[in-house]
Specification:
This protein is an alpha/beta fold. It has three domains: 2-44 and 129-388, Alpha-Beta Barrel (TIM Barrel), CATH 3.20.20; 402-616, Glycoside hydrolase family 3 C-terminal domain (Rossmann fold, 3-Layer(aba) Sandwich), CATH 3.40.50; 643-752, Immunoglobulin-like. 32% of the residues lie in helices and 18% in strands. The strands form seven sheets. Strands 5-4-3-2-1-11 form a six-stranded parallel beta sheet. Strands 12-17-16-15-13-14 form a six-stranded mixed beta sheet, with helices on both faces. Strand 4, helix 8 and strand 5 (226-227) form a beta-alpha-beta unit. Helix 2 (29-44) packs across helix 15 and helix 8 packs parallel to helix 10 (260-268). It is globular and about 75 Å long. Mean pLDDT is 95; it is low at 1-23. Bound molecules: beta-D-glucopyranose. Beta-D-glucopyranose (BGC) binds next to loops.
Amino acid sequence: MRKLILLFTLSVMMFQSCQSTKEKTPMTVKDQAIEKKIDELIAQMTVEEKVGQMTQLTLSVLCKDSLGGAPQLDPQKVEKAIKKYQVGSVLNVVQNTLSRDQWYEIIGGLQKEASNSRLKIPVLYGIDAIHGANYTVGATLFPQELALAATWQPAFAEKSGAVTAYEVRASATPWNFSPVLDLGRQPLWSRFFETFGEDPYLTTEMGSAMIKGYEGDSISDPEKVAACMKHFVGYSFPFNGKDRTPILMPDRLLKEYYLVPFERAIKQGALTLMINSSEINGTPMHANYHMLTEVLKGELGYQGFAVTDWEDIVMLHTIHKVAATEKEAVKIAVLAGIDMSMVPFNYKFSDYLIELVNEKQVPMERIDDAVRRILRVKFKLGLFEHPFYPKERYPKFGSAEFAQASYEAASEAITLLKNSNNILPLAADKKVLVVGPGAHTLNTLNGGWTHTWQGADTAFHTAGKKTILQALESKLGKEKVVHVQGTSIDKDINTSKAVSAVSGVDYIIVCLAEDPSVEKPGDIQDLDLKQAQKELVKALAKTGKPLVFILSFNRPLIIYDIEEYASGVVMAYLPGDEGGRALADILYGDVNPSGKLPFTYPRRTGSLYTYDHKFSEEKDIDYKYTAVNSQYAFGQGLSYTTFKYSDLSLSTSKLVGEDTLEISVKVTNTGSRVGKEVVQVYTKDLYASITPSVKRLKGFEKVDLKPGEEASLTFRIAKHDLAFVNNDLKWITEDGDFDVLVGDLKASFVYSNK
Ligand code: BGC
């Protein structure tokens, strides 16, 4: 009981403090008008109507039992959801991707029912359009986030967001559960490919750009959608690597690393957020009052709403065991600060919450706060006037223009990791053998969240999109390409036939791959590439023909024991529907590769660390500083030309207080091809009261240079770029010596607060 009173008091206080934060920020006239409409609406709403707004169901609950056929709304189920329970939000597909016509029929049907309800509040439909509108037939599929990060060009994340927003709205849907702002620092985790990689700075820049693409200047724009930042917060770092298992993380680290991309997105105005399904230090995030209410809605001043992840309130009872009953789980989550429950299968959340409010176990102020936040998004999306726009309004859906944008992103993402004796680019007049489980499928180019949740069903692929094999055949002519699959992901099929096929070929392209998967089904036991694929490589290596590996992986799979057999290694990531074409163009030099790894590629399964590790991690068993020995380093990526860095200089050697340090550097294309280079600026804090990282990324820029051309770049950093979070959970910058590292150059300065 004491706990309850405390939570109640805190939530009322929090509600008040959120109000006062709101008062401090000047509101536009349009926003004031929206707040007034919300006040008027809330004043008329019954408890049932309010709780309905907080309820989100999955589409199948509203559909006839289709037995795998096309989903159709069931009028009685729809009436129950919208008339009786006033459900405010619906999500997902039933099983697989739908045509635009089907989306219009379904969402149109729901909005029609809503427009006949007492208060006529439109339904907010949400979808996981993670790398394009991947649940709409014929949509443009972009590289997954990890690949977008490898471009080191936020403009590609923005473009991917903009095209996705267009195509999602063209599917009558106004809300996208993207971007993932979690950091990819645990490669065992099945959702690694959904992140922008390991670094908080790169993730923040990419995430912010993607949200800009989704939301533009206003989410009421018919070509924009509301983004959903996820998964707040720390979700990506499970201790044992398995999805939705415990995270052990000091608050200090959470704040210094994992919270940073969310802070930026909130400042930028993002208004929806999904909660981490796991527990941190023993508290499930869905029960975490401190993080959801005090930090998110208090300290960070978040004005949007927090939606649970899939069935996560129920799981407070069934999985996490912090609630003895489902009803108690609802109480804990709502008091902790969740605003909308992705229930998603039944009406228990609504029933329990209505009871809890009537029993005064959950205060009406908390309910009103949640409803206000949800209605704010519905008003800002313009759903009251336009629950959706006419289908004909979107002529560019699935257009060649959009496919080109996806192709360009893939071309700048794909990363050349090894190129012994300049084997690449390959000569187009030579014959090539193409093998491996990734050679002739779009599945391993797209990964999870592609037409189906796990992305493993080939039935819905967009006609005309090319696999790696097809792209090579188009480029070289069929007569120059021999194909033998060799193995599936984990089993030999015809390795011996592949070996026999080498006679007469000049190169072997080995398309190594990992099955598409996501969330729990993507949990793995170890990071090794499957043995069958390794055996294929070893057998082919014995023929003496040069091998080029293409890696289509969800995460960095360990290849150290076969890497020596490769003359070339190309990281494809999950480059999307245009990835086959982009890879062919890179292999044959029509595109000069310029991607850089957004994560540290480990050499061995027992040596997982990030580029910004601590000095102590570098010391090996022999007491030499050799422990950090990745297969490929963060930020690494080769080109068919060469670059030279020179003239690194700092505007001062003594940086004081809030002054800005200017870092200037020159980079020259010293090779014979046009090429793009990502100039990366790192700082190194030599000594600090919290053990410093060996270096931290603080700036980057991609430059495009002709042979012999040079670019002079200037980066600016200031006190906050040198800060870290101390044990009092405060961002501080300590006086002391710092290095700036760019390319192979180094410069030093001293920082003092006064
Ligand atoms: C995932 C979320 C996703 C949601 C809705 C969950 O299982 O964790 O990322 O947005 O389902 O499909």
